[in-house]
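Sync notes, pocket subgroup
Present: LS, DG
LS reminded everyone that the earlier model was apo-only. Rerun requested with phenylalanine included. Inputs:
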Amino acid sequence: MNEFIDRIAAAGDLRALDAVRVELLGKSGAITQQLKQLGSLDPEARRARGAELNRLRDALTAAVEARKQALEAAEIAARIAAERIDVTLPPVPDVVGSIHPVSRTIEEIVAILGAMGFAVAEGPDIESDWNNFGALNIPAHHPARDDHDTFYLAAQDGEARVLRTHTSPVQIRTMLREPPPIRVIAPGRTFRADHDATHSPMFHQCEALAIDRDITLGHLKGCIIDFLRAFFGIASLPVRFRASYFPFTEPSMEVDIGWNRRSGEIGAGGDWLEILGSGMVHPNVLANCGIDPREWQGFAFGMGVERLAMLKHGIADLRPFYESDIRWLRHYGTPACAPVTLHEGVA
Ligand code: PHE
């Protein structure tokens, strides 16, 4: 008996323990063999020997179970020790990621306009035709719809749906959700069926909307000029407002910045580059959202995030933005530990 117990206790791992168990308690193990031989004994001896063997078997079974638990606990402890992660180790430089220029540019836009009092608002990529067009004063069959190369989706609950072609529907959602005064910016994905070196079917825009009792064109101009100068980090950046047309603003203005067409340098040279669309929110748009245009007015502008990033960093081609080429990401990405700060502008 003790010899058996010792062998169980000496089993060094679960496999060795199982071998001992089979040898003692298995179908043709030592104890089983002896139990089988009981039949050849006379009844008196059989009872005594039977009881003894049962006790032995129970004791050995218990010993195997106890050893098994000890071995398993030791194995877990060993694995925990082996797989310990030292969180104080510095990261391996080669696998450190970077912030994508789209994300970084959105962070910069949010930092600048956030400091001016705008809060971030969001909307879904799939929009109702009404939010994307109708409420923005773009009626069905209006030619302005043709400019947008819209991806139309199957109607749901009788309502036509689209992949939003601009972030302007977030204006609608915001005005329907909260009463004025309103100051929001809406960065996000937008979609148009267009694909070449400067157009992608999926791209990003950022919208801005300010509604109050006495917001004027002067506020719009001041806000946009300050924003562009902070974004490009050029205090003297020339900014020009040019009359234009959008169905959802009246008056509407295209905004240009000064640059040098040949060198691509921003802020230098006598050329103008169109950079964003803006205007005073059309009274019909306010009325569509239940806001009385005789009491409230405001401005809106919308800009392309990739376009801003390309101009700021001299990136000529839009396509690599979405190709996950690690060399491009390393080159144009921003270190993850370099948050946007405004203390020196965000040049
Ligand atoms: N939504 C317009 C576009 O995508 C941009 C814009 C926004 C213009 C807000 C004016 C006011 O082209």
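DG: The two ends are 83 Å apart (CA to CA).
LS: The domain at 98-335 is CATH 3.30.930.10 (BirA Bifunctional Protein; domain 2).
Action: DG to write up.
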